[in-house]
Amino acid sequence: MSCVPAIHAEQFVRLSWLSCLSSLYGFYRGYYDLALVPGGVWITSYIYWTKNDYSIWRYIDIVYVNIGLGYSLYRATASSNKELYFLIKLIAILSFIGAVYTSKKQLLTESFYLHCFLHIVGNIGNIVLYSGHFT
Fold this sequence. Notes:
Layout: H1 6-15, H2 17-28, H3 32-51, H4 56-76, H5 82-104, H6 108-131
Helix pairs in contact: 1-3, 2-3, 2-6, 3-4, 5-6
């Protein structure tokens, strides 16, 4: 059984490449531990959305995203860009909450756009974090 309409899953596969880009930027800046977060999100999301089902990959993606977010938030406390990063991540998290809410209301198009916004804003947050300096 599909998680979302096929057209949405195809867009999520394309959107997952944003995580690859922010990961590459993290590696470029020398923040290897942080770069593994969006790098892993790219891999797990790509596999999950390619399958677009309720397989183990869905849960691997969810767990990896949550652990990675927690680690990034923790590391951000020592960043020169922490305030802006936290604001951006708050916006992304609120977008996710909106996506879940609209999905439960069967507003799939609205949920899709909120989920897309989450990925875009989340990766902007990664770039902001990696552009800073850590103490």
